[in-house]
Amino acid sequence: MDNVATERKGLLTQTQRTSDRWTEFRETLRAGVSKGNWETWLSRLEADHDGDTLVLIAPTEFHLRWVRDKHGEVVDAAYRSAYSSERSPLYRVSEVAPPEQPLPVETNSSTVEKAEELSTPTKATNLISRYRFESFVVGQSNRFAWAAAMAVAEQPGAHYNPLFIYGAAGLGKTHLLNAVGHEALEMDSTSVVRYVSSENFLNDFIDSIRRKRPDAFKHRYRGVDILLLDDVQFFEGKEQILEEFFHTFNSLYESGKQMVISSDRHPRNLSTLEDRLRSRFEWGLLTDVQPPDVETRLAILKSNAEFAPRPVPLEVLEYIAGLVSDNIRELEGALTRVTAWSALNRQDIDLETAERVLQDIVATDEPVPLGPEMIIRTTAQAFGFSVEDVLSSSRRQPLVLCRQISMYLCRQLTDLSLPKIGEHFNRDHTTVLHSVEKVKRILRSDRAVFDRVNQLTQELRKGGGLSPAS
Length: 470
Fold this sequence. Notes:
Layout: H1 2-31, H2 35-42, E1 46-50, E2 53-58, H3 61-83, E3 90-93, H4 109-119, H5 143-154, E4 163-166, H6 173-187, E5 193-197, H7 198-210, H8 214-222, E6 226-230, H9 239-254, E7 258-263, H10 275-281, E8 285-288, H11 294-305, H12 314-323, H13 328-345, H14 351-357, H15 372-383, H16 387-391, H17 399-413, H18 418-425, H19 429-443, H20 447-462
Parallel strand pairs: 2-3, 4-7, 4-8, 5-6, 6-7
Antiparallel strand pairs: 1-2
């Protein structure tokens, strides 16, 4: 009996010691990171123990990788302190599936539906679901902008208001704006967040005038806690909308509400904006995003390659990283073409294949400038349609596919933003985004479409034309 009691007491002591260590570990870890990183990443780790060794359980593989890559050092330090061990803790992915997964590879109808869901703006906020901080690759070129965006998301209205992010197209400004919205909602689900392109802001304003409902417009944009306005440069020269936005800005600022604004250039270079508005953009924090360095480009490719249907060798990723230097969008597009070829041919990817598929990207002495008009005209010709057909409202096939491919090529081959591309097709930016994502999926499964898009890409880069489809 005494032996049983002693054993039971020993087990209770061991259990209590394990609990105390875990509590100390969490407290040390929490003190070593920001509130946002704690609540988003580290607080969601659960514990198991293999003897005296801590096993950290993450909800997803992506979550696990993020914790190890971004917070591994602080986790190890907390573990050494709480567990008096020189080793690192072990990691494991939970066997219980979380409610939401990272964007999957589109290999069947269910994953296609999921991809569409993750690419589509949510109705209430207009936020694009897949643009989150956890999928944003941080490097020297964007680290300050990322840190400022994180700070704003954690305490909206407290610091850096407005936060003004500027830089060329395709460098991640839209991603950061949406990430702020998602992070803020995770911190406080009652927050009213609205992401809007300048084009849609303008369209809403025009619609409110037409319907004689100015108060509804004011409530929509002045009643938010966080306003995320993309591509403000498109307000240039539009006096009436600039006047309305000026008053919206003042209303939100005076109420302590957060604004995050993006542009393709510094406010001082938005020459047709009034000084009173330009000066307000500088009240908070200005930060730019630069073209990524080769290490960041490689990190972006590695992150995307994790969802490829077949492994992508490091030498192929390094080749692509060296081939595309100043546009993340084109960088990801190049990888998409290579992985799509692999999926269609059911062959492994190697350097020779990548060089062949991407031969048109190799820099020439006199690159041909591309505009949406040339892309639309060339794509229409290739499918046997007129430009008027492509720009029409017709939904018949294969015209719809032709239009979607044309939007995809505009996105891949120009520096135009989604709203600007939409203007050329008489559509809004959400339609463009849907078309781009749909073509990406089709490229992995339809040989004819892959070949046609590849041919169009090569011809457009060379500045040539195509014969009508037979």
